Every structure is written in structure tokens, then in C-alpha cells.
Amino acid sequence: MTQSFDHPLEITGTPPPMVSFRNVCKAYGSLVVLDNLNLDINAGEMVSIIGPSGSGKTTVLRMLMTLEQINGGVIYVDGKPLTHMPKHGKLVPANQRHLRQRRVDIGMCFQHFNLFPHMTALENCMEGPVQVLGMRKPEARARCEELLEMVGMIDKKDQHPSRLSGGQQQRVAIARALAMRPKVMLFDEVTSALDPEVIGEVTEVIRKLVSEHNLTMLMVTHQMGFARDISDRVCFFYGGKIEEQGPPSQIFGNPERERTQQFLSAVREAI
Amino acid sequence: MTIVEFLSTYWPRLLTGTGVTIVQFFLAAFLGVAISLVMGLLKLSPNRMLRGFAISYIEFFRGTSLLVQLFWIFYVLPLFGVSIDKFTAGYVAVGMNIGGYGAELVRGGILSVRKGQWEAALAINLSPAKRMWRIILPQALVNMLPAWGNLMIELLKATALVALISVPDLMFEARQINGSTFLSAQVFGTALVIYYLLARFMITPFMRWLERFMARKLGMV
């Protein structure tokens, strides 16, 4: 495992990468999920992560959202350490307070939406701005209504999640994450739990985000066509490492590595 | 003496006794719910000291007899300089005892909320206290209400023990009447029916209503 003191207190550069994984390791007991991962994501870049299950794709997002603890290495967001904090000129593992301060830059959407069932669509979106950012309710409402409009859910804003379809819930979840104005958005298999006929309404929203907003996005997906269409870069994960990465035309059109070829042909087979 | 004659003679005492029982029930329920919430949360605390405190509390109040606890609070605490009047000692003992059971319901209810809810609450960066209070507890409450209905009926029946430290509740009045008249079948039969009616027509309908009310309020129908 790499010691954190090998890593700089801050990443300089003009501009620094929005997200930087440096020698990141993650293991559950003896099972190594991420093995010395190095990955830089630039501001405004849309990066897709593909790969077989168990390859560590989702763990990358969960570590960035601070849902999992890091076992080795450092993650930087916007040049500053996320998983660690400076103390006496060295990096030490972050405490809860540091994590709370740094987490504001990151938003996440989940495979199973995870909307709060006891709140309406609008209340779900307003929860963060009001309770975390301390916004006044009218102001938060205006911001959230605008976002619900953007995801096409404004006419359902007063419905509880139990009254919404999966695709509708996921669109509300995207609006909820955006309401916090994150710099980095994470999408964790956001269409995997959806019925085929509603996948399009969610991917449409993500396409819109890519084309109209300068957000940095990291997406784990099984939809290869979608990943090819919207990504600036595609990372193929295998066994906790990046086996191959590059522009979608290269990964999908002319993959160099054998494992990438095998994976993609297996996926095409399935369709 | 027929039951009609019995009731027409002794109804005022049975009625005041029932009134005291109801007051004891509500005070003990209020205290018990508050203790349950605190101990249930403490038992899930990452702090070992707090968790240990909650575990000791729950083990003590669930693991020992309510009657002995009642006698301790009323007869033994004064030896250490803490005197509590019998009315207070009654509902405090029952409430603290029920709190031990309720704490486990609260803990179970919290653990029954899906993991994704915790993660979503963290992803929007809610503070730990707000995560619990605004996101997890409302959902936990809905999940644990049916079990609370049961516990409330247990609580009502447990209040009968306060008669043994002379709180003038229904059971106390029944014993007094029995002592002077020896109409055991009539008096204890009536007491039995009154406890049943309170449970069946006061507690159960209220808890059912509360379950429906909460489910509707939380949009979980």
C-alpha cells in the first residue's frame, strides 16, 4: 500500500484536474477491489467507466462520494485532497469535518434512485439546499423548480416517489443532486434498474447536462451505445485496474487490449 | 349480590381507579417513548461509552422483574436519600421498564431503513444529526409502529403493579373492595373486563389510526 506522505498537499497546474486518483487502493478484507488506481479527470470532462461486474467500477464512484473509506493513496478534488487533510505539512486521513467540507463539490445519482419516500419530488430536491446550504425556502424552491423543469418533472413536483415510475424517480434524483450545485456529478448505473422503455428519458436528461452544462461527470454504465455517444473518454476496468482507456472511438472501434475486445464482444453478443 | 347490584354500589371507586390507571398509562407511555428513543439511538452510537451505557440500561430493565424495580424505586432509593412519592414512583418504574423494550424497537426500526437512504442523505451532505432526524427516523417510525401497538398494551397491563405501592389505581381499588367485601369474582371480573376494554377500544384503535396517519403523511401508502 502506498503511504499518503508521498503525495503533495495540493495539486498545482493550470487548471489542476478536477478529480485525481493517486495510487488509490481499496480492499474488503483480502479482496482487493482497486489496485493502485491512477486516474485524472479534467474539469468539464465526461468520463465513462465500463467493465465486467466486480471490476471495481462502482467502488471508484463510492470512494469519490466518501461512501467508502480509502485504504491507500489519495483522492484530490479540484486540486485539494478529499480523503486526507494537511496536518503539520503532511497529509493525514480526513476526519468527518473535513469530509463534510469537501463533499459539497460532489453529487451522486444511484442505481436505485434512493429518493426520500416521505418527501415529495420538490421536497426531495429542496432538502439539501435548505438543510445543508442554509438557503431560504422561496429561493431553494425557485432553484429546484427550475431543475425539475429541466428534467421534465415540474408537473409531478408535489408527488411522493411511490407515485412515480422508475424513470421519473431517477430524473428527480438527478435534479436533487444538481440542486447542491456540485462541481462533479457521479452516475452509478443510473439506468440499470429501469424498465427498457423509460431508459431513454433518463439518458436524455444526461445528454442535456453534457451539452448544456460544463459539469465534470463520471458515469458507470452498462449501456455501451450511450457511453460511446456522450463520453469524452472511456475507461475499461478489469480486476481493479484500468485495463485500457481512450476516446470512445478507440475503445469501441479499435480496442488494443485483448480483455477489452473480449468484454465488448461478449456485451454485443448479449444484444 | 348480583353483578348489577355490585356495580351500582362500587362504580364510583372503580371509576376513579380506572382514571388513575389511565393517567399512569399516559405518563409511563410518554416517559417510555422518550427513553426508548434515547437508548435506541445511543445503542447505535459509534461511541463505545454511550453504547455501553445503553446496553447496560436495556439489559437491566429488560432482564430484571418490573415488580422488583418498582420496589427499588419506592422503598430502596429513599435509603440513599432519594424519596419519590408513590404516584411518581409508579409511572417512572413502568416507563423506565418499557423504555428498555422500546429501545430495541427503535434500534430495529432504524436498522430496517434501507442502506440507500443513508447513502443518499450523505450524498447531499446532510449532517449526521439531520440524516437521522429528517431522513431515517421518520421512515423507521412507520416500520416500528405495529410493534409499538403491542408494547403499549403490555404497558397498560404492567401499570396494575403500581397498586402494590398503594397508588390508588384500578387494581388497588379492586383489592380494597375485595378486602372489605370478599366479592372476589365480581370485583376481579370487573377489573379484568375494564383492562380489556381499555386495551381493545382505546389503545388498539389509536395505534391503528396512528399507523394509517403516519403512512399517509409520509406518502407511503
TrEMBL record, chain A:
<keyword id="KW-0547">Nucleotide-binding</keyword>
<dbReference type="InterPro" id="IPR014343">
    <property type="entry name" value="Ectoine_EhuA"/>
</dbReference>
<dbReference type="GO" id="GO:0005524">
    <property type="term" value="F:ATP binding"/>
</dbReference>
<dbReference type="InterPro" id="IPR003593">
    <property type="entry name" value="AAA+_ATPase"/>
</dbReference>
<keyword id="KW-1003">Cell membrane</keyword>
<dbReference type="Pfam" id="PF00005">
    <property type="entry name" value="ABC_tran"/>
</dbReference>
<feature type="domain" description="ABC transporter">
    <location>
        <begin position="19"/>
        <end position="264"/>
    </location>
</feature>
<keyword id="KW-0067">ATP-binding</keyword>
<dbReference type="InterPro" id="IPR017871">
    <property type="entry name" value="ABC_transporter-like_CS"/>
</dbReference>
<keyword id="KW-0813">Transport</keyword>
<keyword id="KW-0029">Amino-acid transport</keyword>
<dbReference type="GO" id="GO:0016887">
    <property type="term" value="F:ATP hydrolysis activity"/>
</dbReference>
<dbReference type="InterPro" id="IPR050086">
    <property type="entry name" value="MetN_ABC_transporter-like"/>
</dbReference>
<dbReference type="InterPro" id="IPR003439">
    <property type="entry name" value="ABC_transporter-like_ATP-bd"/>
</dbReference>
<dbReference type="InterPro" id="IPR027417">
    <property type="entry name" value="P-loop_NTPase"/>
</dbReference>
<protein>
    <submittedName>
        <fullName>Ectoine/hydroxyectoine ABC transporter ATP-binding protein EhuA</fullName>
    </submittedName>
</protein>
<dbReference type="GO" id="GO:0015424">
    <property type="term" value="F:ABC-type amino acid transporter activity"/>
</dbReference>
<dbReference type="GO" id="GO:0005886">
    <property type="term" value="C:plasma membrane"/>
</dbReference>
<comment type="similarity">
    <text>Belongs to the ABC transporter superfamily.</text>
</comment>
<dbReference type="InterPro" id="IPR030679">
    <property type="entry name" value="ABC_ATPase_HisP-typ"/>
</dbReference>
<keyword id="KW-0472">Membrane</keyword>
UniProtKB/TrEMBL annotation, chain B:
<dbReference type="GO" id="GO:0022857">
    <property type="term" value="F:transmembrane transporter activity"/>
</dbReference>
<keyword id="KW-1133">Transmembrane helix</keyword>
<feature type="transmembrane region" description="Helical">
    <location>
        <begin position="187"/>
        <end position="210"/>
    </location>
</feature>
<keyword id="KW-0472">Membrane</keyword>
<feature type="transmembrane region" description="Helical">
    <location>
        <begin position="20"/>
        <end position="42"/>
    </location>
</feature>
<keyword id="KW-1003">Cell membrane</keyword>
<feature type="domain" description="ABC transmembrane type-1">
    <location>
        <begin position="14"/>
        <end position="203"/>
    </location>
</feature>
<dbReference type="GO" id="GO:0006865">
    <property type="term" value="P:amino acid transport"/>
</dbReference>
<keyword id="KW-0029">Amino-acid transport</keyword>
<dbReference type="InterPro" id="IPR035906">
    <property type="entry name" value="MetI-like_sf"/>
</dbReference>
<dbReference type="InterPro" id="IPR043429">
    <property type="entry name" value="ArtM/GltK/GlnP/TcyL/YhdX-like"/>
</dbReference>
<feature type="transmembrane region" description="Helical">
    <location>
        <begin position="140"/>
        <end position="167"/>
    </location>
</feature>
<protein>
    <submittedName>
        <fullName>Ectoine/hydroxyectoine ABC transporter permease subunit EhuC</fullName>
    </submittedName>
</protein>
<comment type="similarity">
    <text>Belongs to the binding-protein-dependent transport system permease family. HisMQ subfamily.</text>
</comment>
<feature type="transmembrane region" description="Helical">
    <location>
        <begin position="54"/>
        <end position="75"/>
    </location>
</feature>
<dbReference type="InterPro" id="IPR014342">
    <property type="entry name" value="Ectoine_EhuC"/>
</dbReference>
<dbReference type="Pfam" id="PF00528">
    <property type="entry name" value="BPD_transp_1"/>
</dbReference>
<dbReference type="InterPro" id="IPR010065">
    <property type="entry name" value="AA_ABC_transptr_permease_3TM"/>
</dbReference>
<keyword id="KW-0812">Transmembrane</keyword>
<feature type="transmembrane region" description="Helical">
    <location>
        <begin position="87"/>
        <end position="106"/>
    </location>
</feature>
<dbReference type="GO" id="GO:0043190">
    <property type="term" value="C:ATP-binding cassette (ABC) transporter complex"/>
</dbReference>
<keyword id="KW-0813">Transport</keyword>
